[in-house]
Amino acid sequence: MVRKQIGAIARTAFLESIQQPIVFLLQLASAVMTLLVPIFQFHRFSEDGRLARDSGLSCMLVFGMALAVGTAGRSVAGEIANGTAASVLGKPVGRTLFVFSKWLGCVYVVALFCLGQLAALMVSERASAHFVMREDFSGYATDPISLTLALGGLVLVLAVAAGLHFARRQRFGVSVFVGIVLSQVAVCALSGFYNRLGDWYPIHGEAACTGLNHAHTHAEGAMHLLFYHPELNLRVIPVAILVFLVLLIFAALATALSTRIQTGGVMTVCTGVLLLGLSGDTFLSGERFVLVKRLVSGVLPDLQNFWLCDAIAHGGHVAAGYVVAAAGYALTCCLLFLLLGSLAFRGRDLG
User: Fold this and answer.
1) What DSSP character marks residue 194?
2) Helix intervals (H) in 37-94
3) Tens of pLDDT along 67-102?
4) Which helix (H) or strand (E) holds 341?
5) From 202's CA, which of 1, 183, 214, 263 has a CA 20 to 30 Å away?
């Protein structure tokens, strides 16, 4: 019974959230800004594709925080203001269950957003200029095919969503939100059938990918021919998961705050927490800020432990054990914020 109630409330919160125009606009803006980086890139920053990767992760954090906080704020504070929460709680639904379910619905939204943004940033990094050495080519090469497919997929999603809305009255925002995720994931999957120079596998095989000559490829045997080789930087996935965990923390914090204050105030508080969490060590440096720094570090989550863009630079990796430990820390923060939000919501008069 409790599981059905949580699922129903979370699913309703998810569908109501992605129907809002601001949700798909944030997602669309994040994807477009990420995919345009290779076009306007004029510096490598000591590593091929680093600017596109860091920009994509930054868009995931900034736009994702606005999405998580706005979704949680509207889902809780908005329903309290219009009386929907009172009608739901009039049924056999506890206030703690209500708060947790609303947060879970926000998690669904953030998870889909991060999936689409991760696919977009991997395409953007692949499309950036990389040094390629082959028998017939040596120099920097981009991937215009993947970039064209990714940007064209966004245009196609908008056109299809408009057509479905006109013909079947389907929600335009829902179609766009889901379509952007599917289009970017599809481009990532299709990119494994060709390389940056436009050579299709298995026609050119390993020679087209690694720069080996055809004689060597055929001499080694058919086992070295590549039929599918996605040249994507999979090392970015753990870093993206850490950013996703940060967004879960902000969603829980926004859900808790929304039980007492409106969405604008929630956004202000969460922005301050983000700045202190990422730059607190710089702002509070010095002996006179020792007590304040200890207080801030004891109350607010240390977000610097989740922002590890530099850890994967120049071939670096983020260990799976670190991601698991960070997930435990993030979920603990989420449970703490949701518990405090439930306690604050119990004393709230909904009449």
Assistant:
1) B
2) 50-73, 79-82, 84-89
3) 999 888 888 877 777 777 767 666 667 778 888 988
4) helix 320-346
5) 183
Note the pLDDT of residue 303.
Answer: 80
CA separation for the pair 245, 141 (Å, rounded): 34
pLDDT in tens, 233-259: 899 999 999 999 999 999 999 999 988
Q: Which residue has the tokens 């799976």?
A: 320
Q: Which helix (H) or strand (E) holds 169?
A: none
**Dist CA 330 CA 335 (whole Å):** 9
φ and ψ at 132, to 5 degrees?
A: -120, 135
Distances (CA, A) of 310 to 46, 53, 71, 134, 321: 12, 11, 30, 29, 18
**CA-to-CA separations, 81 to 86, 97, 172, in angstroms, rounded:** 9, 19, 26
The DSSP letter of residue 132 is E
Beta bridge partners of 131: 140
User: Which residues make Cβ contacts (< 8 Å) with residue 124, sequence separation at least 6?
Assistant: 34, 35, 37, 38, 52, 53, 55, 56, 147, 150
3-state secondary structure of 141: strand
d(CA 17, CA 74): 8
Among candidate residues 124, 104, 98, the one with its CA nearest the CA of residue 30: 124
Residue 38: φ, ψ to 5°: -60, -25
How do the domains of the chain map onto residue ranges?
Answer: 2-196+231-346
Residue in the structure block whose two tokens are 């689409």 = 116
Name the token pair of 1: 């019974």
Q: How large is the greatest C-alpha to C-alpha distance in the chain, in angstroms?
A: 80
In the structure encoding, which two tokens stand for residue 326, read together? 């960070």
Look up the pTM and report it: 0.85
Please name the amino acid found at residue 151.
Answer: L
What distance in Å separates the CA atoms of residue 34 and residue 302, rounded to the nearest whole number?
A: 26
Contacting residues for 118 by C-beta, under 8 A, at least 6 apart: 56, 60, 236, 237, 240
Q: Which residue has the tokens 């079947």?
A: 168
| Residue 337 parent element (H or E) | helix 320-346
**Token pair of 247, please?**
């967004």
